[in-house]
Design a protein that fits this description.
- By secondary structure, this protein is an all-beta fold.
- Helices cover 0% and strands 41% of the residues.
- It has no helices and 18 strands.
- Strands 5, 6, 7, 8 and 9 form a five-stranded antiparallel beta sheet that branches. Strands 10, 11, 14, 15 and 16 form a five-stranded antiparallel beta sheet that branches.
Length: 196
């Protein structure tokens, strides 16, 4: 019996996917590595139900700005026995977004949710709060939309579903989250919330 198992971290900066055949494990494709030391590659990770779509984050990545982080989605290609990136890369919008410590996929891998840990996009009295974005895959989208107020905001291949979901109060940073199988329900936790 072939049992899909969540991707596992070999070190804080590399990721591999394996499947179980009875008592043994067989790796799917090559090991993936972070772009640089200290970017916390695979701090957040999620698999689709059949294990052929994988989302991986690197919250400490500085490619787009200091600690903005990124999330990438990969699709398994059985013909080449390799992982190929699906759509464009999600980057944090502001410095210290740490995108993302938590990532979740719908069962089919077509909807993704992740958290912006400490973004300045929502500011009150110069104090930040985190928030969550949910996006759906659109193979026909060939242009990235960077205007966060637009209804089609998102990188190539991905469009935001609804608006951002903000934490309750200023200073509420960081989220754990989980999507339902069909991606239409999301549970969000905020450990920094004090009830006000």
């Amino acid at each position: 019996k072939n049992i899909a198992d969540p991707a596992f971290m070999l070190t804080p900066y590399e990721t591999a996917v394996a499947t179980s055949y009875g008592s043994t494990w067989t790796q799917f494709g090559s090991t993936m590595y972070g772009d640089s030391t200290g970017n916390s590659f695979s701090a957040g990770i999620a698999l689709s139900k059949d294990g052929t779509v994988m989302a991986v984050s690197a919250p400490g990545n500085d490619s787009a700005g200091t600690d903005r982080g990124f999330v990438k989605v990969f699709k398994w290609n059985s013909s080449t026995s390799s992982w190929g990136q699906r759509g464009g890369t999600f980057f944090g919008i502001n410095n210290n977004d740490f995108l993302s410590w938590s990532v979740s996929l719908s069962s089919d891998g077509n909807i993704i949710a992740f958290s912006y840990y400490e973004s300045a996009i929502y500011t009150q009295s110069a104090t930040t709060r985190g928030y969550v974005g949910v996006f759906y895959y659109d193979a026909n989208k060939v242009t990235a939309i960077t205007d966060t107020s637009g209804s089609t905001f998102g990188p190539i291949g991905w469009t935001r579903l609804g608006g951002f979901i903000y934490n309750e109060a200023i200073g509420d940073n960081g989220n754990s989250l989980c999507l339902s199988g069909n991606g239409k329900i999301i549970a969000i936790g905020c450990g920094a919330n004090d009830g006000t």
